[in-house]
Amino acid sequence: MKRGARGLVILLPLLLSGCLYSFKAGSFPPPYIKTVAIEPFDNETTRFELTGELYDQLLKRLPSALGIRTAGADVADAVVKGTIVRYDVAAPNYRAGAAGQAAQVLQRQVTISVKVQIIDQVNNVVLWEDTGVVAQGQFADATETEDVGRTQAITTLVQKIVDGAQSNW
Fold it and tell me: What pLDDT band is residue 6 in, cutting at 50, 70 and 90?
């Protein structure tokens, strides 16, 4: 009986203090951010299709991942904007040729790099920014096209943007 009374004496001040502890993860987006506009990224590469492909994936994943809705840039509480700064295709996996033969490319890798910002349009402040989000996607040179690697890289890029935004929210 004494143990129960002692436990109650210890817990009673906590219960009466109005402890505001909750299990809500983070505070992003701020409670007043209910809508987001996603603008097509500027593109500094020669791969013009990247703008549309990245925009489509961001529009599909970002609002639901952050628990907000999409809206036009003129009425949205926040806006996502950025720049595609790099697109490369490299051959990280190859077999050297023997005695005058050409090297055999086994795998190619697409690398995409972007700068991104999420701006609070209510208070006109940057909520989250990253100037070096980089993602890669691989494709087998003999059996797959560059589209496979690019799709993987864009999917990874969008996930990194979601993760970055959530880490701040």
Answer: low
Structural domains of the chain, ranges and CATH numbers in brackets:
27-168 (3.40.50.10610)
Report the C-alpha gap between 27 and 47 in whole angstroms: 37
Q: What is the DSSP letter of 31?
A: T
**Each residue's pLDDT tens digit, 44-69:** 999 999 999 999 999 999 999 999 99
Q: What is the pLDDT of residues 11-38, one digit of tens each?
A: 545 545 544 433 344 455 789 999 999 9
Distance of CA 134 to the CA centre of its chain: 10
- pTM over cut 0.85: no
What ranges in the chain are assigned the alpha helix state H?
A: 2-16, 49-66, 146-168
Mean pLDDT across 66-88: 97
Q: Is the dihedral of CA 132, 39, 42, 109 positive or negative?
A: positive
Rounded CA separation 26/150 (Å):
32
Are the beta carbons of 137 and 153 closer than 8 angstroms? Answer: yes
Residue position matching structure tokens 């109005």: 18
Other beta carbons within 10 angstroms of residue 38's beta carbon come to: 24
Distance CA 115, CA 161 (A): 10
